[in-house]
Design a protein that fits this description.
The complex is a heterodimer of chains A (221) and B (217). Chain A is mainly alpha-helical and 221 residues long. Helices cover 85% and strands 0% of the residues of chain A. Chain A contains ten helices and no strands. The longest helix of chain A is centred in the C-terminal third of the chain and has 30 residues, at 191-220. Helices cover 32% and strands 24% of the residues of chain B. Chain B has helices spanning 6-10, 52-60, 81-87, 103-113, 119-125, 141-154, 171-186; strands spanning 14-23, 26-36, 41-45, 67-72, 75-76, 88-91, 159-163, 190-194, 205-208. A five-stranded parallel sheet of chain B has the order 6-7-8-3-9, sandwiched between helices. The chains are: A mainly alpha (221), B alpha/beta (217).
Chain lengths: 221, 217
């Protein structure tokens, strides 16, 4: 087994044993989306109009919720120091940890989203694009969030700082994610928006691990 | 200040020349030289805050020296940090043990990250074999320390950097540690460790750091 896969499996194992994070993220997602019909009223037309935005914003906040722990636990118990001295470059380790984070947050969020969209009376045409846009967009959320998590490591009230750092960077992902769904529902092509989501991911994939690894080295110095 | 000794840097083994370390605004030490030949041991002593941990972190490459250079077999470690990481074990103050993983899983993970396969030997060396299936949250502080030290044996590496490895160990575990160090040196490996209590390590050089960072004799 390669060190890269070993790190992913270890993070997945930790997530499942501790059980908290993934369940909490999905639970937060479901409960928050359910709040909207209570808040804005149960009119199907109104809910259908804002469904895509609600699901995307809530998924984004749910992903953010779990990011604080991405490096924090490893930092506190000395694992991060030990990992930084492993032969596998820290950049690759960040990528592995992001992948594990996405598997326990972004992936379940993408799969639960259609059920919640049903609750919000999303137009039937929007469902495939909803799932597709989340599958393309949530990995970017994990990657961009990793940079914020690494930068806010060791800061007091790191969670608040993390939100301030990361939320502005999430805006492009949110715009194109929602636009893809709205376009399909309005009878236009969703493809350009999905391609842009893919481009964001293609950019974040090499850049975020580089930036996060640099921030982690700074935190360990 | 000792005269520069370039010959020590180009000698086989691990060596440092004219090292200086700054933490924040404070110069912890400067003009520090050391050399550890293959099979050698270097013991760092000195009061709290004298820079033992800083020196070990610097040796590991976790921090950059303010001045000076580190070399392995004459080649500066800055030239190839990845090769340096691959050849060293660094055991710091923290044990890097997750409460929800078992003892065998923890050691298997850390050894595997270095491509090591001697998990069984590591567990036996530090008398953890009977605890292999225990979740680490049940371990005592001393047992967690032994588990951290077992990484040394589970994935062999030519350079060990140990920050107060004897902390929290009972007499039996300390004997295990000394035996592991002796085996490492017999195999041609180098060991650098810091300690507050005198450890019976045969033929070890001592590097004494003072509270103001100047190197004592």
């Amino acid at each position: 087994m390669t060190a890269f896969r070993r790190l992913i499996l270890r993070d997945l194992r930790l997530a499942f044993r501790q059980g908290g994070d993934a369940a909490m993220v999905v639970g937060f997602f479901v409960l928050t989306v359910i709040l909207f019909p209570f808040g804005v009223g149960p009119e199907p037309e109104l809910l259908a109009r804002i469904a895509a935005g609600i699901v995307w914003v809530t998924a984004l906040l749910a992903a953010l919720l779990s990011l604080e722990r991405l490096f924090q636990a490893d930092w506190e118990d000395g694992s991060l120091e030990a990992l930084a001295l492993m032969p596998l470059p820290l950049e690759a380790q960040v990528l592995a940890k992001c992948l594990a984070h996405w598997l326990v947050t972004g992936l379940p969020l993408s799969l639960v989203a259609p059920l919640l969209a049903l609750l919000l009376h999303l137009e039937p045409a929007g469902y495939p694009v909803l799932v597709l846009s989340l599958l393309l967009g949530t990995p970017s959320l994990s990657l961009i969030g990793a940079v914020g998590a690494a930068l806010s490591l060791g800061a007091r009230r790191g969670g608040v700082l993390l939100s301030l750092l990361v939320l502005p960077l999430y805006i492009p992902v949110l715009i194109f994610g929602v636009a893809a769904i709205e376009a399909r529902i309005g009878g236009f092509a969703a493809r350009p928006h999905l391609l842009l989501l893919g481009a964001l991911l293609a950019g974040a994939l090499p850049l975020a691990p580089l930036a996060a690894a640099a921030a982690l080295r700074q935190a360990l110095d | 200040m000792p005269a520069p000794s370039p010959s020590a840097v180009s000698a086989p083994g691990f060596a440092g020349h004219a090292l200086a370390c700054r933490r924040g605004e404070r110069l912890v030490f400067a003009g520090l030289d050391f050399a550890v030949p293959p099979g050698g041991a270097l013991v760092l002593t000195g009061p709290n805050g004298s820079g033992k941990s800083s020196l070990l972190r610097l040796m590991a490459g976790l921090t950059r020296p303010e001045a000076g250079m580190l070399a392995w077999n004459g080649a500066p470690i800055g030239d190839d940090p990845a090769a340096h990481r691959a050849r060293l074990h660094f055991i710091g103050h923290q044990d890097a043990v997750k409460p929800v993983l078992t003892v065998a899983e923890t050691l298997g993970f850390w050894a595997g990250m270095r491509g090591g396969t001697e998990v069984r030997a590591g567990l036996e060396r530090f008398r953890l074999a009977a605890l292999a299936d225990w979740p680490c949250r049940l371990l005592s502080a001393g047992q967690r320390r032994r588990l951290a030290l077992a990484r040394l044996v589970a994935s062999p590496a030519p350079l060990w950097l140990l920050d107060e490895p004897a902390n929290g160990l009972d007499a039996e575990a300390l004997a295990d540690l000394l035996a592991a160090i002796a085996a490492q040196r017999a195999a041609g490996g180098a060991v650098v460790l810091s300690t507050h209590t005198a450890l019976p390590i045969e033929g070890a050089r001592e590097l004494s750091l003072t509270a103001f960072g100047r190197r004592a004799a």
